[in-house]
Design goal:
With 400 residues, the chain is of the alpha/beta class. The protein has twelve helices and twelve strands.
Length: 400
């Protein structure tokens, strides 16, 4: 977990990644898909920052752009090395970037597709060490066995192939490979989404234990809010290539300021039968990153949108300490957080007013109200019922 003395290990400034749209025989560029559009974010040492949003909003593209696995179109990515030097990754030549990449690794989403089926566990985990020429021979084998023990794998399975392992074990192999070069920063791209719930808990606890033991920093990409609430220090909500809200985890889950965040939180079920939450179903389609609407990109799906939302792009501003949002009406709306009732959702926040006199039924405490009900006659006793006339005994049993 991050502390007050933590230093900034990663800072991303105005990052953009545009993919060209081409057509015709000459592949002429006719537009761009704005997968990541002017994003800024930072991660402190020992901190876990989660990136959440709908599928296709650009989360994975952002993570790969940070690691320079794909070249960003514009922006700066500042990384603090172990000696304290700050380097801008996108401008580094390949040989120097290769050295810096020892401190930055990635855990991929699919544990089945991210492992080479023709390589043994020994070759998979040792590949980063061989590529960077950090270790060889017997020392390499012993170090790989140590990594396998660290992630909860049996070192005796060193010569096995990926098909001999379960999904959770394969993900542990991927984690061991990411830890091989002793990195300080790891991008976890949907690291547990392909696993069963019970295995997810094991992998999450493993990541948290490794973070505390090895002083790691995580950029955790996910769409599972339950996982995010468990592992994160701060959460960034992403929509169509942009961050629309950023806040500490508890603050964002309890007091969202953006309507899109509120809709995401309403989709997470709450394990309390007494809490009857109401799902917010967003109408319309996700904005096209190749043809974004004017003003706020979320306004076609927002139930609170006004004319200013359709014409003016909202500013990125800090409304509470550490709580940033990009919404024109963030200070007006009283949005509802995780597990809260949805009565009055979206209403304009009103100042406190004096309570009404306690002479109505709504103002009576539940115990007093129940006590009063016990003194009242039952509902069936208050309804007049017409009793049928009794027949004479001599006519008893006769036909009408």
């Amino acid at each position: 977990m991050v502390t007050t003395q933590s230093k900034r290990i990663l800072e991303v400034r105005n990052l953009k990644k545009y993919f060209p749209i081409t057509e015709g025989f000459l592949k002429r560029t006719v537009g761009y898909v704005k997968a990541v559009d002017d994003m800024s974010l930072h991660v402190d040492e020992g901190e876990t920052v989660s990136l959440v949003g709908e599928s296709g909003c650009g989360k994975t593209t952002f993570g790969r752009s940070v690691l320079q696995a794909i070249k960003p179109t514009a922006g700066e990515t500042l990384f603090t090395q172990q000696n304290g030097d700050v380097v801008e990754l996108s401008s580094l030549p390949y040989d120097k970037l290769r050295v810096v990449r020892r401190d930055m690794q990635m855990i991929f989403q699919d544990p089945y597709a991210s492992l080479n089926p023709r390589m043994t566990v020994l070759n998979i985990i040792s590949e980063p060490l061989v590529c960077h020429k950090l270790m060889s021979g017997r020392a390499l084998r012993e170090y790989v066995m140590e990594l396998m023990e660290t992630v909860g794998l049996d070192p005796r399975h060193l010569e096995r192939y990926p098909h001999a392992f379960s999904g959770g074990q394969r993900q542990r192999i991927g984690i061991a490979r990411a830890l091989a070069t002793k990195p300080r920063f790891i991008v976890c791209d949907e690291a547990v989404s392909a696993l069963d719930v019970s295995v997810q808990a094991q992998i999450l606890n493993l990541l948290m234990d490794l973070q505390e033991k090895l002083h790691l920093s995580y950029l955790f990409i996910s769409h599972d809010l339950g996982v995010v609430s468990h592992i994160s220090d701060r959460v960034a909500v992403m929509y169509v290539g942009r961050v629309v809200e950023l806040a500490p985890t508890e603050e964002l889950f309890d007091h969202p300021l953006h309507p899109y965040t509120e809709a995401l939180l309403s989709a997470k079920p709450v394990a309390d039968p007494r809490n009857k939450t109401q799902r917010i179903v967003l109408e319309g389609d996700v904005a096209n990153p190749a043809d974004l609407p004017s003003g706020c990109p979320f306004h076609p799906r927002c139930m609170y949108a006004q004319e200013v939302c359709r014409t003016v792009v909202p500013e990125w501003r800090e409304l509470k300490p550490g709580h940033y949002v990009s919404c024109h009406r963030a200070q007006e709306l009283a949005l509802v957080g995780m597990g809260q009732t949805r009565e009055g959702r979206g209403q304009i926040a009103q100042p406190d007013v004096p309570a009404a006199p306690a002479n109505s039924v709504q103002d009576l405490p539940d115990a007093v109200f129940a006590e009063g009900l016990r003194d009242q006659p039952a509902l069936a006793d208050t309804i007049p019922v017409e009793k049928p006339q009794q027949q004479d005994q001599g006519q008893e049993g006769s036909q009408p």
